[in-house]
Specification:
The protein has 8 helices and 4 strands, in the order αααββββααααα. The protein has 208 residues and is mainly alpha-helical. β2 and β3 form a beta hairpin. α1 packs antiparallel against α6.
Length: 208
């Protein structure tokens, strides 16, 4: 029968069923928690809460004599900055040459600009997810973060999420709904035959 499935196509087809079932469950979890996260986008958290995280990152950079952590932590820090600090400049006299001599022009100085941190949930969560995804990349991925760096940045991200939950009830509700569905739907399914089929990489693994 030309339309009959070949034996070596059975395992991938069965795995595909398991994968689609897991994807449907994960999509359900996302749809249920997303309204809370969306409602929290414009919430602002206490600037001191973000400052404490940035200060922690500064301490990590200052204490790193190897340079191993300084670069990734500094890059992560930059994602939390709205307006970079700028030093004050003094008034300057600039000479301009003319045929009959030179004249001087005065360029006014500028006041110092203090560093301003991002404190809205929408942008903080975008930065958090960006860094989280990099930390969770497999080691062989091009943009993967080495283990030690990932551990340090992961700790900072955990603190950031905790601060966001404490300062934004809507964000906290979204997190609670996400975790509730993870415990009640995703984790049981992942441990079931359906989830094992979805996670099986090869037909040999499916037969194990």
């Amino acid at each position: 029968n030309p339309s009959a499935m070949r034996p070596y196509d059975v395992a991938p087809a069965v795995q595909d069923v398991g994968t689609k079932a897991m994807q449907a469950a994960e999509a359900l979890r996302t749809r249920a928690s997303s309204p809370y996260y969306q409602a929290a986008q414009s919430d602002n958290i206490n600037p001191n809460a973000v400052r404490s995280i940035v200060n922690r990152m500064d301490d990590i950079v200052a204490s790193d004599k190897t340079g191993i952590l300084s670069r990734p932590v500094s890059q992560a820090r930059s994602l939390l900055i709205d307006t970079p600090a700028q030093a004050a400049t003094s008034t300057q006299r600039i000479a301009k040459s003319l045929p009959n001599g030179a004249i001087y022009q005065s360029v006014p100085g500028k006041a110092a600009v203090q560093e301003k941190l991002i404190n809205d949930v929408g942008n903080l969560d975008r930065a958090r997810k960006f860094l989280r995804d990099k930390v969770e990349l497999p080691p062989f991925a091009a943009e993967a973060i080495p283990k030690e760096e990932g551990k340090v940045i992961g700790g900072v991200l955990s603190e950031l999420r905790s601060r966001m939950e404490r300062n934004s009830p809507k964000f906290a509700q979204g997190r609670q709904e996400y975790e509730r569905l993870s415990r009640s739907v995703i984790e049981p399914m992942a441990g079931s035959p359906t989830g094992q089929l979805a996670n099986a990489a090869t037909p040999e693994a499916q037969r194990a």
